[in-house]
Amino acid sequence: MPYIIGIDGGGTKTTCAFQRVENYNHLMRCQSIIVGDGTNVLTVGVETMKKRLHSLINEGLKVHDIQPSEVIGICAGIAGTRLEKDRLSVVLELKQIAKELHLHEDIGITVKSDLLIALRGAMHPENQEGILVISGTGSNAIGLSRNGDLAFNGGWGHILGDEGSGYSIGLQALSAVCKAYDCRESPTQLTGMILARLQLATEHDLVQYIYRDVPNKQVIASLARLVIESSIELDPVAVNILKEAGNELVDLVRGLRRKSDAFHELTPVTVAGSIFMYSDIVRNQFMEGLKVHRLGCYQPAFADPVNGAVIVAMEAITKQHL
């Protein structure tokens, strides 16, 4: 009974799905799941990535009572593999894992970026093209055309880009607190909420906190939750920050349209990430922007990224056995 493995390797967690080939249905989500620590090759390193993938695959084989030799294909979508050299390093490590765990000797191994498998999971299986916009700690977008070409936008990181992301929203909130203190912007309840969260006494303490203590980007991104909470209470400053974030995310789609004439106003556009999940304002502003500017047709995400990895794995072994 042959099986395939789909892997979604992110920065904070890794999800492995074990799919029996003969039971595969592209309209159903895989239920045999194992979850472990993150495997972003750029942040945890090749050695740690390999160790964690080895452990997860081995655990999944035992939990789901699968013989190693039954595994004929793996697709891994690993964060940090946009560059070819990084992708190839993951391919080599997975081949070594396959040998160590005694997987099928002719196993097919495919490594893609985490963005691609997220897109394939989010797209409805019947669609041949689609765009995915992600807004979490950072922000980016990926588009797949009917002829199989990929286009990317955003993903420049929190210093050069990440507009519309949790980090950008948190930074805008900090700026709004400073402007409110200077009477350059309306007073906002974000002032008290942010000072309390950061355990600071006054606005002036922000200077040392930002420039001397240098918080990491996840801490600043976490402030987006306060902005969302404040927007629910209709704080106008918070509402404006989130609306602008929605507009910035619309611009990611606009950029893809400018990069490729393969996308059009009927191209399905779906979203992922914590900001879209928790902020109705961002999501609604984004959807309205798509509609007004005729940039695409919004669709809810069909499934999770790991299901996208399963889809790609199935496609790969189908081609291999033709």
List the helices and strands and how they pair.
Elements: E1 3-9, E2 13-20, E3 33-37, H1 41-63, E4 71-78, H2 84-100, E5 108-113, H3 114-122, E6 130-135, E7 139-144, E8 150-154, H4 157-160, H5 166-181, H6 190-198, H7 205-211, H8 217-222, H9 224-232, H10 236-259, E9 268-272, H11 274-278, H12 280-293, E10 297-298, H13 305-320
Parallel strand pairs: 1-4, 4-5, 6-9, 9-10
Antiparallel strand pairs: 1-2, 2-3, 6-7, 7-8
Pfam families: BcrAD_BadFG (PF01869)
Organism: Paenibacillus oryzisoli
Domain ATPase BadF/BadG/BcrA/BcrD type: 5-301
Protein architecture, described:
This protein has 322 residues and is α/β, with parallel strands linked by helices. The protein folds into two domains: 3-125 and 303-320, ATPase, nucleotide binding domain (Nucleotidyltransferase, domain 5), CATH 3.30.420; 132-298, Nucleotidyltransferase, domain 5, CATH 3.30.420.40. It is built from 13 helices and ten strands. It has a five-stranded mixed sheet, with helices on both faces. A five-stranded mixed sheet has the order 8-7-6-9-10, with helices on both faces. β7 (139-144) and β8 (150-154) form a beta hairpin. The two termini are 18 Å apart. The mean pLDDT is 90. It comes from Paenibacillus oryzisoli. Residues 5-301 form the ATPase BadF/BadG/BcrA/BcrD type domain. This is ATPase BadF/BadG/BcrA/BcrD type domain-containing protein. InterPro entries: ATPase_BadF (IPR002731), ATPase_NBD (IPR043129), Euk-type_GlcNAc_Kinase (IPR052519).
